Amino acid sequence: MKLNSSSLYPLSTSVKHFSRRKYTMASSTSQTLTLTLHAGSPSELDFDDHLCSEKREQQEHQSSLADSPSRCLAGELRIERAWAHWKKLGEPKFIVAPMVDNSELPFRMLCRKYGAQAAYTPMLHSRIFSENEKYRSQEFTTCKEDRPLFAQFCANDPDTLLEAARRVEPYCDYVDINLGCPQRIARRGNYGAFLMDNLPLVKSLVEKLALNLHVPVSCKIRVFPNLQDTINYARMLEDAGCSLLAVHGRTRDEKDGKKFRADWNAIKAVKNAVSIPVLANGDIRHMDDVQRCLEETGADGVLSAESLLENPALFAGFRTAEWALGGEEGNKDGELDQANLLVEYLKLCEKYPVPWRMIRSHVHKLLGEWFRIQPQVRDELNSQSKLTFEFLYNIVGQLRELGVRIPLYTKDAHEGRTSNGIAT
Q: What whole-number distance in Å separates Cα of residue 227 and Cα of residue 231?
């Protein structure tokens, strides 16, 4: 089954109409809660009043708590709700990070096959998503197997963000606010990490979603140069209604991941400062990094981005030659390579169509090292203004015929690792 934005709420859906729909759902839940009230409790009590004042009833309904809108939940109950939802999803630890033009449905599904337990969509522009049907149909696609799923938006207007979020709410497990993009386009558009200069606006974005959606709100942030500023930022987001926080351990100015190491200590400090689930992002290149990051930060899961583009099988314990042949013993040919993964990806693209610009980008990322050995094949790819699947399969065949093969590696069994690469 393939869902795209043509099956989401139509543009004509008004805020008033959606509010009536939301009230109907809440009323249905209210009737269930009413059955547990003490004798003499008025059945007409508003559902939101129960959520705010009847803590005991909430504790008796942990399962329904995970599905309830945040609205006026007190802080302690919001934390319970955040954890109830996270546990309901299976507490995923290996997660595909949001990547513009790169974490689309076929790539997410490929990563899921090889160990990813949850994934983010690419960053979606909330205003364009709300206004442009073509943008929605091309940029947001999903299917029933594509869960758990974070649908990520950039925004600087609470009402516009809410309108966009309502369109994806039925098809994701979190609506995520991008507060970490450090690129120039984010500066020009006044979103992403550049909202760190306007914390009241950030707070209003989170509150708007937390008070109006039935799925939890998550945020992805970067750290401030000053650790206490980062901690205060994380606590503000939690207080505003954020149910999960992903922390990239680099500042807004540290855009080059190869030049600047992620600050895992800052992520650990955030994890210790807040009560909601926290995910760690930065310097996850293979499963040894995953294990070390989880141990050092105490985070509830990790995100990987650039490394997955070169090696979508990272979470299954595979690693590229760069990280397998650096002097460490115990690595062997995993009988899988990036050309194999590209063929699998292309087949998924045939099943779940996406724009060709995304496909072209993945071909270059997956076969970059192969093209360095046979640059004329890369030149042939670059000369094609219009791609076809037949052409791309032939590219793989040409590289095979030319004798190019760069394997992905795995740890030997005696190294004491499970199939997903985590040490036992």
A: 6
All residues at 6 or more sequence positions from 106 whose CB lies less than 8 Å from its CB, including other chains: 345, 348, 349, 351, 352, 354
| Residue 293, pLDDT above cutoff 60 | yes
Residue (of 177, 265, 273, 275) closest to 231 by Cα position: 273
Which of 321, 9, 287, 325 has the alpha carbon at shortest distance from 164? 9
pLDDT reported for residue 326: 64
pLDDT at 49: 39
Residue 248: alpha-carbon gap to chain centroid? 12
Q: What pairing do the DSSP bridges indicate for beta strands 2-4 and 141-143?
A: antiparallel
pLDDT band at residue 25 using 50, 70 and 90 as cut-offs? very low
Beta bridge partners of 175: 151, 217
395 contacts 380 by C-beta, under 8 angstroms? yes
**With the CA atoms of 339, 344, 348 and 354 taken in that order, what torsion angle do they form, in degrees rounded to the nearest 10?**
-10
pLDDT in tens, 295-351: 999 999 999 999 999 999 999 999 998 877 665 667 889 899 999 999 999 999 999
Instruction: Give the pLDDT confidence score for residue 55 in this predicted structure.
Output: 39
Between β-strands 407-411 and 331-337, what pairing exists: parallel, antiparallel or unpaired?
A: antiparallel
pLDDT at 10: 32
Which pLDDT belongs to residue 413? 62
Pure H helices in 211-355: 227-240, 264-273, 287-297, 306-310, 321-324, 338-351
pLDDT of amino acid 404: 93
What the block records as the tokens of 222 is 């970067």
**Catalytic residue set:** 181
Q: Among candidates 340, 387, 390, 389, which has minimal Cα distance to 366? A: 340
Confidence of residue 373 (pLDDT cuts 50, 70, 90): very high
Instruction: Please state, in angstroms and as integers, the Cα–Cα distance from residue 422 to each residue in 70, 88, 116, following that order.
Output: 35, 23, 13
Give the mean pLDDT of the chain.
Answer: 84
Cis? peptide before 148, omega within 30° of 0: yes
Beta bridge partners of 278: 245
Strand partners, 279: 246, 301
| Interstrand relation of 118-120 and 331-337 (parallel, antiparallel or unpaired) | unpaired
Going from the C-alpha of 170 to that of each of 33, 134, 143, 167, the distances in angstroms are: 23, 19, 12, 8
Examine the pLDDT at 255 and tell me if it is beyond 80.
no
Separation of alpha carbons 45 and 52, rounded Å? 12
Taking each helix axis from N to C end, the angle separating 338-351 and 389-401, rounded to the nearest 10 degrees, works out to 170
